[in-house]
Amino acid sequence: TPFRPAFASASVALNLRIRGGSAQRPSTGPSLACAMSTDNKKARTGKRIGTHDGTFHCDEALACFLLKQTSTFKDSTVTRTRDPAVLDSMDVVVDVGATYEPEKHRYDHHQRGFEHTFDDAHKTKLSSAGLVYKHFGLEIIRGRLPSGDEGAAKLLYTKMYDNLIEELDGVDNGVINYPADVQPKYKVSTTLPQRVGGLNPYWNEECSHEQMQERFEKAMEMAGGVFTSMLDYYIKAWMPARSVVVEALEGRHKVDESGQIMVLNSGCPWKEHLFDLEKELKVEKPILYALFTDQSGNWRIQCVPSKPDGFENRKSMPEAWRGVRDEALSELTGLPGCIFVHASGFIGGHATYEGVLAMARKSVAA
């Protein structure tokens, strides 16, 4: 498949995007208007998923993928149409139909008065992806967990919404994630919704029924691949790191009397766990520095950021150390064996545990 830039369908999206699920989109000829099925070469068996035809977006592509990960709809076919009679015959309908009735498996978000969110703690209005995830996400996560840990399943259920699904909900509903009067410093052109949108045909490109359906299947695969990859990372790597951070927090006073330095017994994704666990364990003083070994066996000191995804630190390493390396840094700190301190002061290295701990203690006291 030739490279298709994310902005390729900008004109299509601008002119054809339907925000009201029951609205009639302008006719583009039979190639985009008729019902299409992902399994139209086989006799229809099992249940059927319905969504709109024409230009597709990331939310319904992921919604269809998620439904096919459930026990109820795993063998379903997908039909793309705006014909009300055809949609009425579907077992589940997403992103079209102008109704949200979960008891009937109708999951649209375009109708007037729709203001549903994931829960009371979230303010972003749901798209079809968010609606399907809200009702089926926990089942999908339970199915991929190697153990029946319900606490882990519920934690991941919220985690996946916060780190993937809410973004798709916001984009599809036109909710920006920064103040409207703030001018972005650079353009972002490679988000998942942009990549999925880039699979649509160009505004001046012919596309047959079969080709359009193949493109939607690729969109489902792309969106679903990101979802599955992220969930597997959280299950296999992120969740196991939680116990490492718990152990580090419990031993912080043995490391230093300040209680603001923790030692991780392994390099791992610790930042988000730390912020959650500080609240959960009622840590009296915030952790300022995390110490751990790198792949070469040397020791690292890393500053704790002010927030999990931020670049500002709770307390950076001393200004005089920043951007200095090796012998020059050792002389400056009075600690033989120093390796480096980053120019921004957020991370540094030392050959030994004793040395990196001394760097951390000096930084706390600075």
Structural overview:
This protein is of the alpha/beta class. It contains 12 helices and 11 strands. Strands 1-3-2-4-6-5 form a 6-stranded mixed sheet. A 5-stranded mixed sheet has the order 7-8-9-11-10. Helix 6 crosses helix 8. The N terminus is likely disordered.
Q: Any chance you could write out the topology, listing elements then pairs?
A:
Layout: H1 10-16, H2 30-33, E1 36-37, E2 48-51, H3 58-67, E3 77-80, H4 84-88, E4 92-94, E5 100-101, E6 106-107, H5 128-144, H6 150-172, H7 192-197, H8 209-250, H9 252-255, E7 261-263, H10 271-280, E8 289-293, E9 299-303, H11 326-333, E10 338-341, E11 347-350, H12 353-365
Parallel strand pairs: 2-3, 2-4, 4-6, 7-8
Antiparallel strand pairs: 1-3, 5-6, 8-9, 9-11, 10-11
Helix pairs in contact: 3-5, 3-8, 5-6, 6-8, 8-10
What's the mean pLDDT score? 89
Instruction: List the total number of helices.
Output: 12
Q: Measured on Cα atoms, how large is the radius of gyration?
A: 25 Å
Structural class: alpha/beta
The side-by-side strand order for the widest beta sheet comes to: 1-3-2-4-6-5
Task: Give the distance, in angstroms, between the N- and C-terminal Cα atoms.
Answer: 56 Å
- Basic shape: elongated
Q: How would you sum up the major sheet?
A: 6 strands, mixed
Give me the strand/helix succession.
HHEEHEHEEEHHHHHEHEEHEEH
